[in-house]
Design a protein that fits this description.
The protein is mainly alpha-helical and 223 residues long. The chain has nine helices and three strands, in the order H-H-E-E-H-E-H-H-H-H-H-H.
Length: 223
């Protein structure tokens, strides 16, 4: 028999809620998926964080707690080889995730994971799963409801990636929601790392554009 994937991962949840928006640009999707995978490993106590230089965070595998799911285990094995700074971990893990994730999204008879919202809402399959996930994030951010750690992590990652505003009006983009999401993002180290990685990527891109523009200008002045 063909081995079946383990329970749905947070990275799958992220892909499903973002799918209608076609978020497939580098580095947003790649870094955010990597943050989701690290969050999954952390929630399962498969990795732990260590203090790094200058207040940074390093991540190492908990050797006695390997994840059973092959998708999670590949990243765990990478971190088991030696601890990495969280930014290095995001950069190494992210580009490898899309291909193995996509086949996992179509799960016949998919049912909600324990601790999510009403299991009878939205039906089964990918569409129903998205309804449940978005409803959970909305309850957390709009209504201030308590939520499972996975929903909290999902909300934090959406905030860190800058994609949360796209959910309006499903999740109204109001000052109260923005403030609540930012607070949750600060409390989830994986989300903080994603936000920092994306800020660095934007800064690098801007610097590259300035250098290119200067080169073009210099070339035009010589003619």
């Amino acid at each position: 028999m063909t081995p079946q994937p383990g329970p749905p991962t947070l990275a799958e949840d992220l892909l499903i809620v973002l799918k209608p928006f076609g978020i497939d640009t580098e580095p947003v999707l790649v870094r955010t998926l990597a943050g989701a995978l690290l969050a999954d490993l952390s929630l399962g106590h498969h990795v732990r964080t260590l203090p790094g230089r200058g207040g940074s965070i390093r991540v190492e595998a908990v050797t006695e707690r390997p994840p059973a799911d092959d998708f999670l285990r590949s990243a765990w094995e990478l971190l088991r080889s030696h601890p990495r700074g969280v930014q290095a971990a995001l950069a190494e893990i992210g580009p490898t995730l899309i291909s193995p994730l996509l086949p996992r999204l179509d799960r016949p008879g998919d049912s909600p994971r324990a601790g999510s919202v009403d299991p009878d809402s939205g039906g089964d399959g990918e569409a129903g799963r998205r309804v449940r996930l978005v409803s959970g994030v909305r309850g957390l951010l709009v209504d201030g409801a308590e939520a499972p750690q996975r929903i909290v992590a999902l909300a934090a990652l959406l905030s860190a990636s800058g994609t949360l505003r796209r959910f309006d009006p499903e999740i109204p983009w109001t000052p109260a929601v923005i403030a609540r999401a930012a607070g949750i993002e600060r409390d989830v180290w994986e989300a903080r790392a994603v936000a920092e990685a994306l800020t660095r990527a934007v800064a690098a891109a801007l610097a590259g554009n300035v250098i290119l523009a200067a080169a073009v200008l210099s070339g035009s002045e010589r003619h």
